[in-house]
Amino acid sequence: MIEVINKACGLDIHKLFFIATILCRSGEKQQKRFNRTDDDILTFKKWVISEKCNVVACESTSDFWVPIHDSLINYLPVIVGNARDMKAFTHKKTDKLDSEFIAQLALNNMIQPSRIFPIDHRAFRSCIRLRHSLVQKRTDIKNKAHAILAPEMFNLKNVLTDIFGKNGIMILSGISSGKSVDQIIASLSPNVRKKSDQIREVLNNEISQSAAFRLQICLKLIKSLDDEIEVLENEIFNYAYNNHKHEMEILMSVPGIGKLGAATLIAEIGDFNDFSSGDKLASWLGLVPNVYQSADKYHNGRITKRGPKEARWILTQIAQAAAKNEK
After folding, report:
1. Average pLDDT over the chain, rounded to an integer
2. What domains does the chain contain, in order, with CATH numbers?
């Protein structure tokens, strides 16, 4: 961090444009509006470099700051501050006032920089988050399929542990495409065929044409999402093992942490050496309680949830997996 800042530029960034304000300790002010395009970002870069700004600062609003940060970071310091922390100083009013206020904070060294990961690592983390989003969408569609089957009295859950496993998909595809009971049972694995009497009892219920049509669409979407998730996982694990093999091995030695859990933690946390202690890491992840003090009394509230929610989600899954292994 620069010890003395004599000239700072504050940015208020939006999806299509951003306002830039340069402030000097002498009180001089310059303000310009730029479109958030490659040409205008280049023009902005030339401007702040020619003005010899000591630092450029902005809020971590969405990912709108990324192209501006990446274009400047090799030329001068760029501070990306936590929006919630910066709003605590004042109430936002207009875009011009916002950028000027951010410049004022930067000029007085009052912005705590956020941790910015390298470009490759940000792409890795984006793959992890996209996979998580696709898994959620797949779960939603599976729930839709359950809702389609329930009124039709197809209680496959009484026969199969997972109706969207290999055998479950065979049965669902069969009933939605109009196959006979014998054809469906013949396509199942030997272990499941042992339950043929129970399966016949379920399949004897006639499914409506509308339900079969909707179920087919759900199955196609699930298959498509399965394929895309597999592609993402291959990309994720290739990157993780090529760039973080040692960290993967250490994390996977912990009960409850598998390949996906290890890769997700690496993607969300980045360099573990950035944290001097486990307490600091827990605080960054938002796993520590809010603490309130009044006189000599302390009150611990709920966890702060300030860090990446994906990291907290995967840690919850890991804890549940570890608890099951202990039983």
Report:
1. 89
2. 7-107 (3.30.420.140), 119-242 (1.10.287), 245-326 (no CATH)
